[in-house]
Amino acid sequence: MAADDRAFCRHCGKQMELVLADLGDIPVANDFVEMAVAVEDDPKVALKVMVCGDCRLAQTVDLKAADDLFRNDYAYFSSASTSWLDHAERYVDRMIERFGLAPGARHVEIASNDGYLLQFSMQRQLDTLGIEPCRSVADAAIAKGIPTRVDFFGRAYADGLVAEGWQADLVTANNVFAHVPDVNDFAAGIRTLLKPEGVATVEVQHLLRLMQRNQFDTIYHEHFSYYSLLAAKRVFEAAGLRVFDVEELPTHGGSLRYFVCRQEAGHPTGPAVARVLAEEIEYGLDRDEIYHGFAENVDRLRLAFRSLLLDLKADGKRIAAYGAPAKGTTLLNYCGVDRSVIEFTVDRAASKQGKSIPGVRIPIVAPEMIAAAKPDYLVILPWNLKDEIMQQMAGTSGWGLRFITAIPWPSVV
What we know:
Structural class: alpha/beta
Radius of gyration: 21 Å
């Protein structure tokens, strides 16, 4: 690695040499392009993930600033997914029961999006506060009556909240830890915000499952880090926090929910922590060798996915897609699949309709277009919602519509 290409771990500061995946130049995932804009080369940024040989934190290099990614018009609205809303409501009820949260207990959510979760806390009479850096989704929460502050979270921001009397019984951070460039500052902020016996839950995609299931499309610029328990435990401990429990979740292709408290808090450490650590070590996440083969698997998947779609096009089949998630931008651009192969994609989020996926310029339209156009095949881009999407489409496939997924391996469902 040349001297000017050196990358240093954002947790421990050590120089990194180990490459997990190099996907080349890819557009920023949620920089959707208006259909009226002339077709030209969309801005692209190098997308490479490296692994620290010391603390084992997997992380992007050549990243854009978080201000450029999450301010103003970030287009992801969590409430668009009914299964995610169900997940959020179950979570609130379980936390109230497990930790004995009475009405008036303080619940803070970091990256609260459009209020998809805190609405259920408010219904259960918890004292809630959302912190969300993106104005467009924060405004949606505020319109629902959910107290929301528009800002990035870190230690300095937590100090300000504590000065206002806002120490929390429960802190929720769902799918935000991966989006944070300064992981040490974020973890320190959680410790500051927690009451002495307070609990934070941090939900994040599990690097182990990402690698086992070839989920390379979940690599994009908005994801600065990719966590194993091995790495997350070190980040939390450096901030004076302790992982006392962990739950494995099916969301996003396989996630972990870390239960975190202050190091000196009385929550006993459960057996799941040792069990997950042992599985990660058995797979080899503490050694370099396992990371070397991941890029080869990704390249084989790219070739197989392209061949499947191009063979169908050669047979005269019409192909559309469902969804415009961030993972779709990575998948389609890395695989070189553009609108000459996939005619259009549909998405329920009105904020994405009328735009196109950057780089490949596949138009994003309303779901009603599927029944109108009657394609032969539908590529499900948010494969983590495959069952939900196929259920939604059950009544509109009378012409023989078939489904395609690319992850963990290209196949016709």
